[in-house]
From TrEMBL, chain B:
Belongs to the ABC transporter superfamily. PROSITE patterns: ABC_TRANSPORTER_1, ABC_TRANSPORTER_2. Residues 5-237 form the ABC transporter domain. This is ABC transporter ATP-binding protein. It comes from the Bacteria. GO terms for molecular function: ATP binding. It holds the Pfam family ABC_tran. Keywords: Amino-acid transport, ATP-binding, Nucleotide-binding, Transport.
Amino acid sequence: MHELPQQLANGLILGAMYGLIAIGYTMVYGIIQLINFAHGEIFMIGGFGALTVYLWMPAGSNLLAIVPLMIIGGVICSVAISVAAERFAYRPLRTAPRLAPLITAIGLSLALQQAIWKWYPNATKDRPFPQFKGEAFDVFGAHIQRGDLFVLIAAPVCMIALGLFVSKTRSGRGMQATSQDPDTAKLMGINTDRIIVMAFAIGAAFAAVAAVAYGLKNGQIGFKMGFIMGLKAFTAAVLGGIGNIYGAMLGGVVLGVAESLATGYMSDVPGMDLFGGGAWKDVWAFVLLIVVLLLRPQGLLGERVADRA
Amino acid sequence: MTALLEVEDLRVAYGKIEAVKGISFSVDAGQVVTLIGTNGAGKTTTLRTLSGLLKPIGGRILFEGKPLANIPAHKIVALGLAHSPEGRHIFPRLTITENLLLGAYLRNDKAGIEKDIQRAYDLFPILGERRKQAAGTLSGGEQQMLAMGRALMSQPKLLMLDEPSMGLSPIMMQKIMETIVELKASGTTILLVEQNAQAALSLADQGHVMEIGKIVLSGTGADLLHDESVRKAYLGED
């Protein structure tokens, strides 16, 4: 497993997942400057929503045919919880000091984990997630599992759709206006509350897609899966420049590839043989974050805060 | 004839500090009315309250006879009240065209919007030349033109301009003031807040002088321009 193409492919697959989740952090932050720490759990709930739909299907159904239904089920669950969180937990705190919604988000994150643990059948342990069977594809010397293909298609499709929505539609323009200057956006007749709900909903939908990808890749999902994935995705959002949707995806891919390369090659670096392998990959991810923030505090594609007139 | 806008005993506070302490004035259709006064007089607070960004603690605002209190800001635009805020507040990372389109956010008549964008370019040719440029790259005067053009895109019955001449070069200020005269000639009703009393009073039908939250003097533009105390306090004459 030392081949470069394989490491790059692994990194890309992981990074695309980080990127999809990171969109949710970055959109919400871009508009209301809230780090929604419950977003990792929104991702996790998307996985359980998708699994539920799968379990409803008759045994022996063609997985390819029911994946779209699983996505819809996951998206509905994630969006419903996320929009409810905005409405009942964050909106009442909109004018409160910044620390209040942040702590609320952390509390919500724990509550959602515990709710799944307690009430989802047999969720105290990881639950198996359906798998695509069949040979892996060979692309430039890298083996790509059938399930991994999903995120490699879904991530670019989601990004293109989001890019078009933001730049070409009236609501997308309203979203950009609200993130740049919320009071003036109101003067244009933009219902900024609705725009905020929309940002939460889009982020949740993307997280649910990522959760399906996660399940198909790992073959299991669990109530704790949102913690480290959420943390990595948040890192990706900061790395790419928080508030910038393209930065979120770029940050995800850079982080995923960096992790993968560190896992594969760090032990080959003289004197670093102790720090290679999968056990250290999280460490390298955060080292990368620290280095980027030292050199470019606004992130890869971020703009300096001073530009926000 | 009833006034387009009627403000009665309006009071606005930030926490415990009252910034507007019971002012009354009205604007008739087709008029240019100006509020002048120094920094901190409460002029901007008044405009922000009229457009719904701030909630009054007392008094009444009637627009075409309908009370405006308790209507959220984003719905007030729909009634025909446009606000070009102090400090211009264009959307810096959007293009000029996108900024203008945002001014027409609530409109659905595509052809009409196209026509009005063209009208904004006719009014301010420099905006037309730079339509694909990010608005943040414009000079202060150009940003002011964009802010005015954007406010006009909602086809307002009343256009509120807050300090349109602030921080501009004399030539640019001249251009902005000429535009206001043009807009007035075409029948636009304008509520103008200015620190440049000379310029504002010379084109206004009605003027009100504000001092620390109150209107201390009212009259026609010409009257105030020749008023002894106004000349002393605001026009820098001894």
